[in-house]
Amino acid sequence: MRDVQNSPIGVFDSGVGGLTVLRELYRQLPQESILYFADTARLPYGNRSAAEILQFVREILIWMGKKNVKMAIMACNTSSALALEAVRREFDFPILGVILPGARAAVKRGKRIGVISTSATAKSNAYRQAIQEIDPNAQVWQVGCPEFVPLIEQNRIWEPYTRQVAQKYLQPLVSQNIDTLVYGCTHYRHLAAVIKDIVPPTVNLVDPASYVVQAAEKELKLMGLRQTTPPLPTQFAVSGSPEIFSQVSQQWLGYRPLVEQVYLPTAHHSPFTWEEVEVLD
């Protein structure tokens, strides 16, 4: 019987966006071991169909199941919006998404709430529905920001063009006199300095990464799954280039991680059809 308590927490995203969740795990749950996966070969997720996202998420969770994770955190709003409810019924470990924790935090901060997200998340209306289920009187404006993730993944955060793009996306929300702005994509926290320079200082900024980790801590405690042995070093894996991910992530991690490239198992017939995962040299 495997030692479930001391198994890792799985965290996944399309790229470096989920590092915002990883950093919160380091801060709030430093005793836990973590397996981080970035699906960099298929990013950005924001222009994918719901069927594609569900397929990708199943493949990632099958791989994480083979790695014996005790919990998985979707550090990706698009996956949380389009696939969370379906896959929760299919796997035998808890799976957490970022949208509900983010929505709960937002309604505590304001009544005029702006959400910046990928186009897929915006079209899903997941944030509006979650926020207004909690507070029917809250007003919600959503803006899809398709250029943000590629700019972040290409390490172009400080270029003048990125600020121009941010201005274009944020201006409609500022004009609505929002009092709260939700980072509806985990990547967007990496643009915090740019965003803070555009929105009024009175606007509350909500990063769901912090709140999903709080939810994870409660879940682990409730299920008796808190780690009891010293944590292992974080394992990093990607579906694309390990070198590019390692280089780009260094600025947020404070170190250059050792990253392996993996082939994901397929999930064409059933999420429980386990296939061998081949590690690339």
TrEMBL record:
One of its GO terms (biological process) is peptidoglycan biosynthetic process. It comes from the Bacteria. Substrate binds at residues 13-14, 45-46, 77-78, 186-187. GO terms for molecular function: glutamate racemase activity. Keywords: Cell shape, Cell wall biogenesis/degradation, Isomerase, Peptidoglycan synthesis. Belongs to the aspartate/glutamate racemases family. This is Glutamate racemase. The lineage of its organism: Bacteria, Bacillati, Cyanobacteriota, Cyanophyceae, Oscillatoriophycideae.
